[in-house]
Amino acid sequence: MLSTILLAAVSAATASAGALHLEFRPHHGGTPLAKGGTFAGGTNGDLTLARLDFLITSLALRKTDGTWVESAPDWADFVSTGKRRLTVRCDGVAAADYQAIRFRIGLDPRTDLIDPSVYPPSHPLHPDFCGLHWSWQGGYIYLALEGQSTKSVQGGNGFSFHLAREGNAPVIELPVNFRGGGPVTIRIGMDVPKLLDGVDFARDGNSTHSRDGDPIPGLIKANLTSALKVESVAADTFAAAAPAPAAVAVPLPAGTTPFNLEIPDRFPQVNLPADNPLSVEGVDLGRRLFHENRLSINNSVSCASCHQEATGFSDARRFSIGAEGHTGDRRSMPLFNLAWHKEMFWDGRVPSLREQVLMPVIDPHEMNEKPENVVAKLSEDPAYRKSFATAFGSPGVTVERLALALEQFLLTTLSHESRFDLALRRAGDLTEEEKRGLQLFVTEHAPERGLRGADCFHCHGGMLFTDNSFHDNGLDLTDSDLGRMLATGNEADRGKFKTPSLRNVDLRAPYMHDGRFATLEEVVEHYNSGVVRRPNLDPNLAKHPAEGLGLSDLEKRELVSFLRTLTDQRFTSPATASNPPPTP
Hints:
Layout: E1 20-28, E2 31-32, E3 38-40, E4 46-63, E5 68-70, E6 76-80, E7 87-90, E8 97-105, H1 109-112, H2 127-130, E9 141-153, E10 156-164, E11 171-179, E12 184-191, H3 192-195, H4 201-204, E13 207-208, H5 215-227, E14 228-234, H6 280-290, H7 303-306, H8 353-356, H9 359-362, H10 371-379, H11 382-392, H12 399-411, H13 419-424, H14 432-442, H15 457-460, E15 470-471, H16 485-488, E16 497-498, H17 520-530, H18 539-542, H19 553-563
Parallel strand pairs: 1-12, 10-13
Antiparallel strand pairs: 1-2, 1-7, 3-4, 4-5, 4-6, 4-8, 4-9, 8-11, 9-10, 12-14, 15-16
Helix pairs in contact: 6-11, 6-12, 14-19, 17-19
């Protein structure tokens, strides 16, 4: 049996004897094809690739005597052009001569129905890690192919093909001769244009979610066999960048009490920072600091001034007002369920929560204070000196400890007790209007197949109601704020902003990164009829007709009614607040 060590890439130093690497190479006519690359789509026009992701399971090798060596039943991995994850690995290949390789694109029916919350954060089937699960809608996406076309279908120029559901997971067998027992890399070419052979956007539509009766899944499934070919075999060590070093785990400081952060059963598993274990004392200190005005230059505002629990840990302003009366150019983001966030701010310019918490302190438009001045002010307070010593096991107020305490507190600001959650647990119910709104939320818009939906779930699906990614959602851009491009310098990120969670959305008006919409009704109307077309527009919006979704007034009301079921009732009442301000 092959072992189940599942890695996307390993360094030469960690490659072991018996390591097998499958390196996938998306291409068009032999030319490598990466995210943002273009290729000829025949009658469908020239196509631009925005996403090509797929799952790989059931790996097996055929020996020259005809017998097959199977991987363990739970072996799985995924490939993603957007994440530059093009190589999968399996260790433990015995020394023998092999003549074929076999694997499945997708999952067997049993695995497809497993609750994804059972998988740890580093597992390839973890929904946040692979990004290929429909969460409470059920099941995985086996292959996602998305992008834009130079030709339009019913006014839309995007395409979004999701191969999924039982019967649509092809088993691929490829001839290849190699000797196992040492590190081997098998390069497999994927001719991307061939995936769409026989698919006519004008005839078949420019999207699929593999519903019964849809011809596109069968075509893509059949095309996978001809699109995949072994290009080369190299009996050498696969070289890749060494993975980032993991945080060194540290014990709880002496005398502190572990803080039991209860992750809801349906939420994806998450890694909490090993080098900053949560304690009751640390969380309490962080809560006090969050409400502390002395973090600002003139002791006038705190973090809580712009992130109020009653408004979903945001505020009710289009642009928050800083300590000295200045305003920024983006509105305050909601601060809950942050343990699942991998990049912070609307443009993702900061990679960790502990770095993020200090940015408002030094920002001239916000607190405009130097961290060392904050430390000096807090050090003058005997109560703070005692709290820092208690929380960290030794005396000392430092900038690092300030950030760690705020991180601890913010990791505890969970939101998971809405009417929607109660309905999922069958501890409550939604009204008929709200149920119809939910159906609109999770239904794609495909008029050619008689499907009328709002198509919200692509970016706002799952229990977190966000994919924690960055998208161009068709807003009319200003020259002063080009979104994620300002952080990355990449033209492909122009106009992309982080997807906020829709939890507590009814509390968080105004909306969008610049607060341009005053009501949920205005937000819904933007997606219904106001999306601006441009090259970076998310394919799942670009595929819609140019005139919009055509939702009726009743359907728009139903959708808004459902969105209001996502309010966590604990946030709206000081008596039940999950993280009340400290007692003065």
